[in-house]
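Dear colleagues,

As part of the handover before I leave the project, I'm documenting each prediction I ran so the next person doesn't have to rerun anything. This entry is a single chain, and its sequence is reproduced below.
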Amino acid sequence: MVKVQELIQDTGATVRKNKTRCTLLHAAATYNQPDMVMFLLKSISPNVTNKEGQTPAHVAAEKGHTQVLNLLVRDSDFEADKRDNRHITVKSLLGGHLFKAILERNKKEAERLVELGADPDSHGGKLVN
């Protein structure tokens, strides 16, 4: 946390990696760091995108980081229907994890994913229903 605070003081909160255009918030979502996400949301929009058009929520959804995703989607500025460059939403990305939770009969995880907005029709369609 101290290193991140120093980096923000030197460069600003929206510092980006040149090649990927990822922000510190993308990195925190990638590495499942909820405390860092909470801290960074004070100065970085949850809708900031990288080179692929992905928000930090897209990254968290891809990785199945539900705790981090929960923080991102609860931010008052969060745009739930934002699409990346492939026209994929966070809800669609969560659909795969929902499908897996259902197949594994993990009711708690399935409920958590539905609360986060998982689209049950994005992977498996009628089979999920």
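The radius of gyration is 15 Å. Helices lie at 2-11, 24-30, 34-40, 56-63, 66-73, 90-103, 107-115.

All the best with the project,
I.
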